[in-house]
Design brief:
The chain is α+β, with helices and mostly antiparallel strands. It has two domains: about 110 residues, Phosphorylase Kinase, domain 1, CATH 3.30.200; about 140 residues, Muramoyl-pentapeptide Carboxypeptidase, domain 2 (2-Layer Sandwich). It is about 25% helix and about 25% strand. It has six helices and 17 strands. Strands 6, 8, 9, 10, 11 and 12 form a six-stranded mixed sheet that branches. The chain has a four-stranded antiparallel sheet with strand order 13-14-17-16, with no helix packed on it. The protein is globular.
Length: about 325
């Protein structure tokens, strides 16, 4: 058989070489792209399995729950035994975590356990801590005890406060937090005898930074006016207790945000939290079931209930705060 001319052999050889080069380039591009995707995978959240962080700092998991700064994931209830306690619908409108506002008017019964603020304006040695408008101003004793403890520590550092307790429990406005009995309103006394709105400036900054240690929060933070709908009640102090005050402080949450966040935490994925005093708590939400609701309460192996408190949220359910055994 006659050989093909040289120019034809070179032509076919060149075509083959070009094809080989093209295939090689395609393979190399594919390898490089694959490598880049692998390198970037650790920086991309998988939509169904990874957690994402919200603007308030809480991390939301795939089940809708939130992980808070300082949360103790090893103190959640898990497989701890429990029993049921039955709570009526009326109980949903009372408690330290009821949220009252323009969108959720107070629906509870009249508060019957409020006492005069007069006996709480002095420390245990009779030193005056603050002033009151008059002795008819009342609030729940748990709130006033917390206020007195806080103001006692404040005055040890700065002397008597130029603050006047102007308002306590009131029923005239059902959209006011004062309806709960857990809230008091302080104003500042000026040198000329007039009152001005409370401002956490100077020595009063201590109150803003330390109120949570006494189970108190400033109910309407200025930076949360878009959430609370209130911007002109800077001196409203609300008792919420522990660990709630500490959680809200550490995670920059107002009461509305905190109570809404808890709705994603049932008994099975309760928020576990250790306070600065070393006490462990579990906090979780139970939706209302109508006229009566069966609420899970943790128990020890012998059936003894943990110490717990239940607060309504004033709209659709209950929040349980269980004190966990000392470790």
């Amino acid at each position: 058989m006659a050989k093909k001319p040289l120019y034809k052999r070179l032509k076919y050889g060149n075509i083959l070489a070009v094809l080989v080069i093209i295939v090689f380039v395609i393979v190399m591009v594919s390898v490089i792209k694959s490598s880049k995707n692998d390198d970037n995978s650790s920086n991309v959240s998988a939509p169904a399995t990874e957690s994402s962080q919200s603007s308030d700092g809480a991390v939301s998991g795939s089940d809708g729950s939130s992980t808070l700064e300082g949360q103790n994931t090893d103190t959640v209830l898990g497989k701890i035994d429990y029993t049921y306690d039955k709570y009526t619908k009326a109980s949903m409108y009372d408690g330290v975590l009821t949220v009252v506002g323009a969108q959720a008017a107070f629906s509870g019964a009249s508060v019957s356990d409020c006492v005069s603020c007069y006996d709480f304006m002095f420390d245990s040695e009779g030193n005056k801590l603050f002033s009151i408008r008059d002795s008819t101003v009342t609030a729940r004793s748990v709130t006033l005890n917390a206020v007195r403890s806080m103001m006692t520590d404040f005055c040890k550092q700065y002397g008597e406060a130029g603050l006047v307790l102007m308002n306590g429990y009131e029923t005239g406005d059902s959209s006011s937090d004062l309806c709960t009995g857990y809230t008091v309103n302080f104003r500042m006394l000026a040198a000329d005898g007039t009152y001005t709105d409370f401002s956490p400036m100077g020595s009063y900054q201590w109150l803003a930074e330390n109120a949570y240690k006494y189970g108190l929060i400033f109910r309407y933070p200025q930076e949360k006016a878009g959430v609370t709908g209130v911007s002109d009640k800077t001196g409203y102090l609300r008792y919420v207790g522990q660990p709630h005050a500490q959680i809200m402080k550490n995670n920059n949450l107002c009461l509305e945000e905190y109570v809404e966040m808890l709705k994603s935490h049932s008994y099975e994925n309760a928020v576990g939290y250790t306070t600065e005093s070393g006490s462990d708590y579990a906090v979780y939400y139970c939706p209302s079931e109508g006229e009566s609701t069966n609420i899970k309460v943790p128990t020890s192996s012998d059936g003894t209930k943990y110490k717990y408190e239940i607060s309504g949220n004033n709209t659709d359910g209950f929040i349980v705060t269980a004190k966990l055994p000392d470790r």
